[in-house]
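RECORD TYPE: inverse folding
INPUT: structure tokens
STRUCTURE:
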């Protein structure tokens, strides 16, 4: 008997399905949003400091995670992505992260003291039963709120970014970029890492506190 794959939460499945169907070269004949949504798989990419991720045409995307130590709860990680340059494969070109307005920005997290993380970042390979796949960056963040305590529950938002090709006329090829496709509210959380794991229906990373909320606050 063929093992049935579990679908992710419906909002995430729907968004990822739409994104996969919009990929260049994605076959639409004989498949529907429902077909893709019900068989979407999300595979986390292990990124301690560096990861190599195969992408189209046998190329490899390089991911870096750089720790910035402020010797306090405001320390953070910066995330960078590189791929072979379109016009000179021996060189590496930066793969930018762009919001819905097309503006580039620096991608960073905010782990705070670990129990009450404010921003959590993860990279995932997303694959459908039809064989279509893409690389996604998913960011979960929540505001500090009005309280002076980060452990106070605030509304978390999840943002999904997919690796996308630049439009080109063929004369001046450009490298890929991470395109923001959606941001959704996730409800109240005291830890963005817990919120992300809950959203993806995946286990918490080792050492993550299951509840960063201050009791009685």
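DESIGNED SEQUENCE:
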């Amino acid at each position: 008997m063929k093992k049935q794959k579990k679908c992710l939460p419906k909002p995430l499945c729907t968004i990822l399905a739409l994104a996969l169907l919009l990929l260049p070269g994605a076959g639409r004949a004989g498949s529907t949003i429902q077909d893709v949504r019900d068989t979407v798989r999300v595979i986390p990419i292990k990124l301690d400091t560096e990861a190599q991720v195969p992408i189209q045409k046998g190329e490899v995307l390089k991911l870096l995670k750089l720790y910035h130590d402020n010797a306090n709860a405001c320390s953070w990680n910066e995330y960078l992505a590189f791929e072979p340059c379109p016009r000179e494969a021996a060189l590496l070109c930066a793969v930018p992260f762009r919001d819905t307005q097309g503006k580039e920005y620096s991608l960073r997290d905010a782990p705070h003291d670990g129990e009450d993380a404010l921003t959590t970042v993860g990279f995932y390979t997303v694959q459908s039963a039809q064989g279509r796949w893409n690389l996604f960056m998913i960011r979960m963040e929540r505001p500090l709120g009005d309280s002076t305590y980060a452990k106070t529950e605030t509304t978390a938002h999840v943002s999904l970014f997919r690796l996308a090709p630049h439009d080109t006329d063929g004369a001046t090829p450009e490298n890929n970029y991470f395109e923001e496709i959606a941001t959704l509210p996730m409800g109240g959380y005291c830890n963005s890492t817990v919120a992300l794991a809950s959203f993806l229906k995946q286990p918490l990373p080792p050492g993550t506190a299951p509840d960063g909320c201050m009791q009685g606050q």
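NOTES: Confidence is low (pLDDT under 50) at residues 1-7, 23-38.
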